[in-house]
Amino acid sequence: MIHVVAIITAKSGQRAQVLEAFAANRPAVLAEAGCIEYVATIDAAGMPPSRGTFGDDTFVVVEKWETLDALKAHAVAPHMAAYGAKTKEMVESRVIHVLSPV
């Protein structure tokens, strides 16, 4: 299994719009061969800000894939290209961590 943690920071005040596009694209991702989990997460409400807090403009996508090949196919899927084009001007940065369980 492959785990992915993608940290997406939207331009100031645009996280909600990026999350709307993410939500619209999510069913297509979940239908991909090998997709186990694909969910956007934000800082838990009620927690005080800390060095581990992402803040109001950032969300974290938690993904699980059956294989690395499934993840590679996801990366080049047409719906991902469309999502990237739609959100390109709204995103400040994207950091993607691809991990294997030990």
From TrEMBL:
One of its GO terms (molecular function) is monooxygenase activity. InterPro entries: ABM_dom, AI-2_Isomerase_LsrG, Dimeric_a/b-barrel. It comes from Variovorax robiniae. PROSITE patterns: ABM (PS51725). It comes from the Bacteria. Coiled coil: none annotated. Gene3D superfamilies: 3.30.70.100. Keywords: Monooxygenase, Oxidoreductase. Its EC number is 1.-.-.-. Residues 2-99 form the ABM domain. This is Quinol monooxygenase. It is an enzyme of class 1 (oxidoreductase).
